[in-house]
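Journal club prep, notes for RB
We'll compare a predicted complex against what the paper describes. Inputs for the NAP case:
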Amino acid sequence: MAKIIMKTPLVEMDGDEMTRILWQWIKDILLVPYVELNTEYYDLGLKHREETKDQVTLDSAEATKKYGVAVKCATITPNAARMPEYNLTQMWKSPNGTIRAALDGTVFRTPIIVKGIEPYIPTWTKPITIARHAYGDVYKNAEIRVEKGCKAELVVTDAQGNETRELIHDFAKSDGIIQGLHNLDESIAGFARACLNYGLDLKQDVWFATKDTISKKYDHRFKDIFQEIYDNEYKERYEAAGIEYFYTLIDDAVARVIRSEGGYIWACKNYDGDVMSDMVSTAYGSLAMMTSVLVSPDGIYEYEAAHGTVQRHYYKYLKGEETSTNSVATIFAWSGALRKRGELDGTPELCEFADKLEKATIQTIENGIMTGDLYLISKLENKKKVDSKTFLEEIKVNLDKMM
Ligand code: NAP
Ligand code: MG
């Protein structure tokens, strides 16, 4: 069988620890036999980030802007313990943070659903994708502890030095605390467009919610920007696609989410997204079954798994012990990137391969062959736990039947 050709390169960002091992095996077993892989390779492993003084991360982000699609392996974000382990000269920043800043992107996280792994909310039969606004609010705040007897005000000074003041609170009777938040119209608009574009991509409704009844200027601004952009730029395309943009209050939204069957994108303000993405991913069963894609407002895509480098398994692997690490989210990062490359290049055979790879992966688990994390929670009767590499080989058996 002739291998599938890739017209345009894909940016490949290699990573660290156990996921780096899985990365190579996924390529060797599930990709290279079928696809003439055309990638521009960047090694974001911590060793090479140190060697290049993190230039490689910036270069990989620039390449992503150039080619439009990237696939990324999990990487170590250094902490104090990593300094001696990797002989670091600096505690390099999180590559994900650097890439997100360079692309001004929004992260969408989607669970992969398989029979036997049942969500804690039994009605969630379709995935809920969470999009988190990654700028401002409480994550870029200013805070002051205030002593009794003080008065706190918001002060805005314009370019001519004129002040606008608003009383926050008169702390006449007690000590207390204050907090200053901000956001930018431009950032909110970029977030709105990324979410509304992704809705069109997935042909799914987009939900958005804030507390605009209480926060009549701050949260209301989010609501207004989303609505304006939807009405002016997306309404017609949404109606043609048979999908909708839906706004409601955040407390109404959480109640509806719990009662829903899933199958939509939930756009969240920064703090809501932080909290809700952990709740939703736990409710679907396993972090190892969660995919993540960073989408820029101008339509650049970077695919990855939502989990980290699975350090504990890597140390077992180094000692020669058997590991049973789940590669599903990393496989789906590759399939997502290949499908997007195929869509952009007009090569349907690449998209079909991505579909088959995902099907073969899901089929393997639904046939009862799975890694240890899933074995613990699967409700299937004839289930079998296999090691990291055998799992990939079993997927290949199913994939070969489809090719
Ligand atoms: P982690 O790698 O996500 O792993 C935490 C635990 O979750 C593992 O020890 C394992 O539990 C389970 N787990 C996660 N993914 C799994 C998989 N694919 N298969 C089976 N089990 C899985 O998080 P971490 O240990 O806190 O972080 C390790 C490194 O990853 C850190 O250096 C961190 O900076 C980095 N990180 C990177 C990213 C990224 O690049 N996007 C994201 C998060 C963290 P058991 O040990 O119980 O089996
Ligand atoms: Mg969180």
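Talking point for the session: The chain has 14 helices and 18 strands.
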